Amino acid sequence: MSKSILNKNKKQLAIFWFRRDLRLDDNAGLYHALRSGFEVLPLFIYDTEILDDLEDKNDARLTMIYRYLKKIKDELEDKKISSSLCIKIGKPIAIYKELIEKFDIKEVYTNHDYEPYAKVRDEEIKDFLEKKDIHFKTFKDQVIFEKNEVLKDDQTPYVVYTPYSRKWKAALKPYHLKSYPTEKYFDNFIKLNKSEVFNFPTLKEIGFEENQNPHIPSTDFPKEIIKNYEETRDFPAKEGTSRLSPHLRFGTISIRKLATLAKETNEKYFNELIWREFYMTILYHYPKVVNNAFRSNYDKIPWRNNETEFEKWCQGKTGYPLVDAGMRQLNETGFMHNRVRMVVASFLTKHLLIDWRWGEAYFAKKLLDYELASNNGGWQWAAGSGVDAAPYFRVFNPESQLKKFDKNQKYIRTWIKEYDTKFYPKPIVEHKMARERVLETYKKALTPLTKL
């Protein structure tokens, strides 16, 4: 950025810090920042604490973030707004130390993030800023209900979905779904001249490559798919799911607007949005689930953890077509159909007796819609170690699942080109034996069963 604006009387400013909310529309924290009485400097930080853990330098998630940041930048630089987006690279605490030297910052606004690292990071930032007499204000934006807003009558958190969802729905009022009219206050962004614009770093400058073929779905709400959701959701060959989960993950769409549509259109789809918040509640109240089983007794299971079998699972070469098609779809596109996710997770944990944490970590590397709470919840559900009333007896049969949900084999033939040829591998494990083995293994490890 040119030096002139940095030194011009050091205007008193508020910062809005974009994180998991990459949109100008209906953004809670941004709305409050724009109404703060200060000009607002929009900020995004490429957090090296997170980036340094990403092994794939062609990660499609970085490309998605980059493109939506570009969209925000272009919208801000529109002549009607005449602002821009400040982008920094580094550790957030170091970035804020730099910014307070350049600007007279009075307040910092952002939206809540509930993951363990984010909570520690935000507490550090808050402590630092408040020592400088700068207010750090955060808001609920990525969920309808958070933290302690949906509790049992005794004020303890729910650990079973159905009663949680009932209380969630009973608590819902029209104002919970009301949008924040940010566009009314766009004049309050910091004003820049054309010669005074912020640097917009390329992905190469932050150590990554732009993925040339990222499978980023549209942000348009597929109303017909949502309307018919319960009829099509289980069939991976159909366009039967909304594909909006990456946009919920990065906040490129509004949860309030999507929940409004879902509530009016399809209860089954609406319930899926509540599942997402349920898992976020579990993570918030039970952060141990990041590395440990929700049901502690399940940490006693003696996993086989055969590395050769795990590699075949990763590559989609197990000899079970529905499992292999799902893994190949994931590896190529960063997406896997939800029904297939359950099958491949069950196969890894139950058929191969490989620790659910191995599968969870692999999904974390590959999924475009990766979200810690949902990914962890889904994997613990598959392993039987999570929030589930009758857990370990469930062992999906990949062959019967294939006959039921892809009977015409359209899905598996899309992803397994060598299917029905001598090049397709034989099954690496026999279903009946694997089922008996896992039930016996779990039974021995879990006797006597304990609760948490």
Could you give a quick summary of the protein structure above?
One of its GO terms (molecular function) is deoxyribodipyrimidine photo-lyase activity. Its cofactor is FAD; (6R)-5,10-methylene-5,6,7,8-tetrahydrofolate. 45% of the residues lie in helices and 8% in strands.
Fold and architecture overview:
FAD binds at residues 229, 241-245, 269, 272-279. α2 links the parallel β1 and β2. A five-stranded parallel sheet has the order 3-2-1-4-5, sandwiched between helices. 45% of the residues lie in helices and 8% in strands. It has helices spanning 3-7, 28-34, 48-51, 60-76, 92-102, 116-131, 161-171, 223-227, 229-232, 245-250, 255-265, 267-285, 307-315, 321-333, 338-351, 356-366, 372-383, 398-405, 410-415, 431-445, and strands spanning 12-18, 39-47, 86-90, 104-111, 135-139. The termini are far apart. It is an alpha/beta fold and 452 residues long. It has three domains: 12-141, HUPs (Rossmann fold); 143-177 and 223-285, Alpha Horseshoe (Serine Threonine Protein Phosphatase 5, Tetratricopeptide repeat); 290-445, DNA Cyclobutane Dipyrimidine Photolyase, subunit A, domain 3 (Orthogonal Bundle). The radius of gyration is 24 Å and the shape is globular. It has 20 helices and five strands.
